[in-house]
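thought: user wants a sequence for this fold. calling inverse folding tool.
action: design(structure=
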């Protein structure tokens, strides 16, 4: 990556942002209900503007109601926030960490208002999506763009965003550790069944998205390097890197599948669904599977329900041995890796960048700090575009705020 910055714009041709004296970090996530009475209001927030009746929402609500109406995601974000704070303190970085959600308390607008009330004016946003795409990146940029406008803080508070981190060792290495352990577990299950040499397949899984979103992921110029959409290509690259770190996986079959499809049946989404793929694997003679949820950073509801419940049940019905690799969560390397990419953006006490260069171990990274114009674009239902932070304004070619 070039290190030459345009002093007018503050970013280089590769979208790297100049280090700044940030005074706070905002951890932003999806949010989730924390009681039975929260479930439907939460789902209304998630589906706002789509006109979905409560009766339809109750079909999804069973996932949460089975778990007492509680999504684990909020507790996981509290744990991640605490781990980030501990790692910042260990590195003598005196930055407070705040937390705000897209769909449930604490809402990002409220958190941003609190940050401004506490005197913070230069904020660095850490979103909890690892890959490129609308939901994992641009929607966070829109959330903050809208929040600045709705709270009256536009022009008062500046918010930038750290880059997507799918390519970082801190994200990849925990999956390497988990895959090694899960392969042992599946082989033990097969041995107990009297089939120690049974075929094992490694099934990498991520969240399905509409094909329109997949084809819009990243800037259009980036698509020229791939034979498929960027969202899928990044996941395949991560899967390849994980496999390269696990000698025990050499020679084993692997695939990339999808989960958690929603929306109208006639709208094309990425396929195959994991349960359909498992059925095909069993019919093809596979004896056991290791499921690696590379699309997720924590064991939230979609992991617990779609994988630990539905996919696990599918394996039981099909006679497949099953083990699911943990998500990074608060793994020491993952937390340290997040602080590494935060440090890329910070100045030290002498006003110099704290970290020179950007760590990356997966092809396609490091990603942009400042997203190119029309990156992952997705108009609102009325055809309008929402205000965003941390992107390039297509008309003037400088970062928009």
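)
observation: tool returned 401 residues.
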């Amino acid at each position: 990556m070039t290190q030459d910055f345009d002093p007018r714009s503050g970013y280089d041709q590769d979208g790297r942002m100049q280090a700044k004296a940030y005074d706070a970090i905002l951890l932003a996530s999806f949010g989730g209900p924390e009681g039975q009475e929260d479930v439907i209001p939460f789902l209304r927030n998630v589906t706002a503007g789509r006109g979905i009746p409560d009766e339809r929402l109750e079909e999804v609500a069973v996932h949460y109601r089975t778990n007492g109406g509680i999504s684990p995601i909020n507790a996981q974000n509290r744990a991640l926030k605490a781990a980030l704070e501990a790692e910042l303190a260990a590195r003598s970085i005196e930055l407070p960490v705040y937390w705000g959600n897209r769909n449930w308390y604490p809402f990002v607008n409220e958190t941003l208002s609190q940050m401004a009330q506490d005197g913070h004016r230069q904020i660095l946003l850490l979103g909890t999506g690892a890959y490129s795409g609308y939901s994992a990146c641009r929607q966070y940029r829109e959330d903050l763009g809208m929040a600045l406008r709705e709270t009256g803080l536009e022009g008062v508070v500046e918010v930038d965003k750290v880059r997507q981190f799918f390519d970082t060792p801190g994200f990849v290495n925990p999956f390497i550790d988990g895959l090694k352990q899960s392969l042992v577990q599946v082989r033990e299950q097969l041995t107990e069944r009297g089939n120690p040499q049974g075929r094992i397949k490694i099934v990498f899984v991520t969240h399905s998205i509409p094909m329109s979103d997949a084809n819009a992921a990243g800037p259009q110029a980036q698509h020229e390097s791939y034979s498929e959409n960027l969202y899928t290509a990044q996941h395949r690259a991560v899967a390849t890197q994980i496999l390269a770190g696990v000698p025990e996986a050499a020679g084993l079959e692997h695939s990339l599948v999808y989960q958690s499809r929603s929306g109208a049946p006639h709208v094309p989404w990425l396929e195959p669904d994991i349960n359909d793929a498992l059925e095909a694997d069993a019919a093809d003679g596979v004896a056991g599977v290791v499921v690696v949820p590379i699309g997720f950073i924590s064991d939230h509801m979609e992991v617990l329900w779609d994988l630990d419940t539905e996919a696990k049940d599918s394996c039981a019905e099909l006679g497949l041995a099953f083990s699911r690799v943990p998500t990074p969560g608060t793994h020491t390397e993952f937390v340290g890796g997040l602080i590494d990419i935060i440090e890329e953006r910070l100045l030290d006490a002498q006003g110099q960048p704290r970290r020179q260069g950007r760590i990356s171990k997966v092809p396609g990274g490091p990603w942009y700090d400042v997203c190119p114009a029309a990156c992952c674009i997705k108009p609102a239902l009325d055809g309008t575009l929402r205000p965003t932070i941390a992107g390039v304004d297509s008309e003037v070619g400088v970062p928009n705020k």
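thought: summarizing for user.
answer: Here is the designed sequence. Residues 24-165+331-400 form a domain with the Rossmann fold fold (CATH 3.40.50.1400).
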